[in-house]
User: Which sequence fits this backbone?
């Protein structure tokens, strides 16, 4: 009596290909999630830098950023969004914010990658305006 082995090769192929397919889908899902998280971090860094530029003190010589207040404002903004930030004041008018975070993976944990870190940096300049035009 002869056995029918037609479905056997398909089962072997499926058993070999399925883990690779799951990892490929996982790469797509997790790397797109990482890209989205990094994009959000860039937006938070930009807004934190803008928040820092509002810490202006007017002196006899003209307006300048209060460096300590600008740092606090940028750090508070980032912290409220759930990120750690380093805020640097450069010169009298520029605030540079670097935000760090990590994306917790959904699929890549299956192969030992639990999270993917990222860093986003943005800056903002405080400018003088008079009647809506830069002075």
Assistant:
């Amino acid at each position: 009596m002869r056995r029918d082995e037609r479905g056997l090769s398909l089962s072997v192929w499926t058993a070999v290909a399925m883990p690779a397919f799951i990892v490929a889908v996982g790469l797509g899902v997790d790397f797109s999630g990482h890209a989205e998280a990094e994009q959000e971090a860039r937006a938070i860094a930009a807004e934190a830098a803008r928040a820092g530029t509002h810490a202006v003190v007017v002196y006899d010589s003209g307006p300048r950023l209060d460096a300590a207040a600008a740092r606090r404002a940028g750090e508070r903004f980032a912290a409220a969004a759930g990120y750690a930030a380093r805020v640097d004041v450069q010169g009298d008018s520029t605030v540079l914010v670097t935000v760090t975070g990590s994306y917790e993976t959904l699929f890549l944990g299956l192969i030992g990658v639990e999270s993917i870190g990222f860093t986003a940096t943005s800056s903002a300049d405080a400018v003088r305006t008079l009647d809506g035009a830069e002075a």
Helices lie at 8-52, 67-80. The mean pLDDT is 88.
